[in-house]
Amino acid sequence: MKSLDRNSLEEQTRLVSRYVAGDLSRSERAEFEAWLIASPELAADVEMERRLRRGIASAARRGWLERGVPIERDRGRERHWQIALAASVLVSVGLALSILAPREPASSTGASRSAANGQRVSTVRTVRLSSFRGNGSTPDVSFSLAAAPGALTIEPDVVVLTCEDGAIELECAGGHSPQQPQYAEYEMDVVNRRGGTLAWRSSRQAPVARTQLSFTLRDPGTLDAGNYDVVVRGHSADHAEVVARFWLQVK
Amino acid sequence: MSSLPLDEIERIVAAALTGDRGAESRMLVALRPGVLAVLRFGAFHRWIDAEDLTQETLHIVVERVRARTIDDPRKVFAFAAATARNLALNAARKMLRQQTVVDSELIDELAQNLEMEQSELSDSDDRHLAQAVAELLEELPTERDRQLLTRFYLDGTDKHLLCSELGLSPKHFDRVLMRARTRLRTIIERRAPHLALFPRITSILLPLAMTFTFWVRHFGSW
Asked: Of A68, B14, B154, B188, which has fewest CB within 10 angstroms of its CB?
């Protein structure tokens, strides 16, 4: 360990990101950790590095980063007035039109029926799942057709990190922790248990921030009532494997 | 977080090495966050109870300090880090030995432990954190800094590649990261202080309790 001066501490602070990512060699890590013991300031920095990584991944998962503007900020409240005002104007115009517009003879076409009955609350439901479920007595995810969400996002926590040579170890060569997702890409299938027919297949995706996957099934209300297997499959260049299986129930 | 300066911690440990019991208590308080950090952030953090092992580590460190086999505070820091690492490695080995590991089970175990790590934060805390990070990104002075953070942390783009693409020196890159962490800490302390670092009350009470235990064991009474 170098002398306990501020310059050396600043040198170590530059290593924070590599330390949290598990990129330091065994000797670098030993020295860094001795500094961690000596400096709560450095420990706080490491904690913030972890929070930053997790927070960015979480914000991305919620779609906040793609929009470039975080949602649910205080200024959102200011917008409520504008939205309320706009809604009032729309309602007034709608009322005026319904009173003034000439009336058509009533018709009960299939299209209008389905518009009235089939209208769903356009919400997105997000479910986070750990690995290897689906064998218990209760479904991992369920919804009723009467209250189906507009989209169902499943975030399976199934990506295993391996060493560079693909080995699943606690510690890789050189003292690094595993960093490599086991598979380059993952996809999700929704398979109807009755007849084993494929109801939906996602496109393949690479894990975000090494371990995070997010599959969105648009309009799950179009599925038939019944039980489904939600299968997550990992794909490498020459191999594919089911890495997790969940149970989806549509009532 | 109010933390002691580096040289002050070194002085405290140096005093503890001379047998000063008051300094020993202060040493436990000073070293605890670092030991906990080594255990929480180390290679085996998914397989261990960091709080438990922190106490065990500090126990071993105090005994070594009392035995006067170390004469340099810097060696105490290195010893504490090595002890924490070894205890963590042993705990992880023990945990895996207790299981009959076949491939699928190992994968399952790894996945469950990943889940443990994920659930370290509640949904609401996770949301607070995401909001804090979104606020941080919005506050950044340049689009380039925003790009740097999202591409580095989210896409995993290599530091050198980012530096060359964004026209930054590695030092500037490090500065952006350091500033981001500092700013995030401020935002978190305002929005959700409990996410800032280790709960402060435990960092005071636990070492006091340990000192009490050592004292009673050593002298037979309080």
From this structure: A68
Task: Inform me whether the C-beta atom of residue B8 falls under 8 Å from chain A C-beta atoms.
Answer: no
Q: B85 in contact with A at a CB cutoff of 8 Å?
A: yes
Residue A192: its H or E element: strand A185-192
Query: What angle (nearest 5°) sits at the alpha carbon of residue B196, between those of residues B192 and B198?
Result: 125
Interface of B with A in 127-166 (CB under 8 A): 127, 129-138, 149-150, 152-154, 156
Query: What is the C-alpha end-to-end distance of chain B, expressed in Å?
Result: 32
- pLDDT tens track for A200-247: 989 889 898 888 888 999 889 889 888 988 888 888 877 777 787 888
**Alpha-carbon distance B24 to A206, whole Å?**
51
Closest in A13, A157, A177 to B115, CB measured: A157
- Mean pLDDT calculated for residue range A167-189: 81
ipTM, interface predicted TM-score of the complex = 0.73
Q: What's the pLDDT tens digit per position in A31-70?
A: 899 988 988 888 888 888 988 988 998 888 888 875 434 3
Give the chain A residue nearest B187 (alpha carbons): A48
pTM score: 0.53
Q: What is the pLDDT of residues B138-181, one digit of tens each?
A: 888 888 888 899 888 888 888 889 899 889 898 889 889 989 99
In the prediction, which pLDDT does A179 show?
81
A·B CB contacts under 8 A: 209
- Tell if the CB–CB gap between B184 and A51 is shorter than 8 Å: yes
Q: Choose, out of A8, A26, A33, the residue to mutate when testing the contact with B (most B CBs < 10 Å).
A: A33
Q: pLDDT class for B112, splitting at 50, 70, 90? A: very low
Interface test with A, best of B53, B142, B153, B187 (most A CBs within 10 A): B153
Split at pLDDT 50, 70, 90, the class of A118 is: very low
- Does the distance separating the beta carbons of A49 and B114 come in below 8 Å? no
CA–CA dist B163, B75 (Å, integer): 37
Shortest distance between the Cα of B144 and any Cα of chain A, in A, equals: 13
Within 10 Å of residue B157's Cβ, how many Cβ atoms?
A: 15
* pLDDT given for residue B35 in this prediction: 92
> Which has the closest alpha carbon to A60: B165, B137, B183?
B137
The H or E element that residue A139 is part of is: none
